[in-house]
Amino acid sequence: YKKLTKISEKQAVAGQLAAGIAHEIRNPITAIKGFLKLIRVEQEKPSSYFSIIESEIERIEVILRELMVLAKPSDLKYERLCIDSVIKKVLTLMESQALLNSIEVEQNLLFSNIHISGDENQLKQVFVNYIKNAIEAMPHGGKLLIEGIQCGEKVCIRIVDEGGGIPPEVHARIGEPFFTTKENGTGLGMIVSRQIIKEHKGNLHIFSSSEGTRIEVTFPCYH
Ligand code: ADP
Ligand code: MG
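A: This is the predicted complex of the input protein with magnesium ion.
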């Protein structure tokens, strides 16, 4: 495996700006969506363009939702969180997607009742993003391993997949907003997750080979 990632300062600032803009755009988009619905019901034979407009609006909403996670540190709600329960909640959320893709999920949390200080929604988003990528990397099925270990004052969570890995030309561009190799990707998951980890004083390491990818996230424990 080759080590790939470093967190940059400039990206943090850019992310917060993006989150602010996303927040501002959300309300007008909601209004547009509502009025579009009203116009549609007024039509006797609604044009097929309506569904195109609606699905494009939906895509804008997905992007806004992802960007809004890059909130200012002052907007975060830090709590004492039990890390294994956060991971278990995320796995419940992702279970159906894994099943649909013939992915066997192995959970190996070698600790219980370890706490960290964090914003629950943001931390969930981090794990959702990595698990989603892992599932998407294995279109023909495979094994997804979620492992948790405690080492001293730190807790480390690994997300390991058996996908095709991140090729060099792709890993060079990870961290570039909107860079995606997927037809329906947003290219925001990696950058958003990295930013949240940084905000939580955590560390991120990405290892990848043609045999698969291993994401390691480390957070300081909180007593
Ligand atoms: P998206 O998933 O919307 O494409 P991300 O920021 O989550 O955006 O990921 C960016 C790109 O990084 C992906 O398009 C993919 O090429 C690559 N990538 C991320 N995680 C993995 C993984 N586990 N295995 C292989 N490639 C990955
Ligand atoms: Mg993704």
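The first strand starts at residue 2 and ends at 3. The chain has a mean pLDDT of 91.
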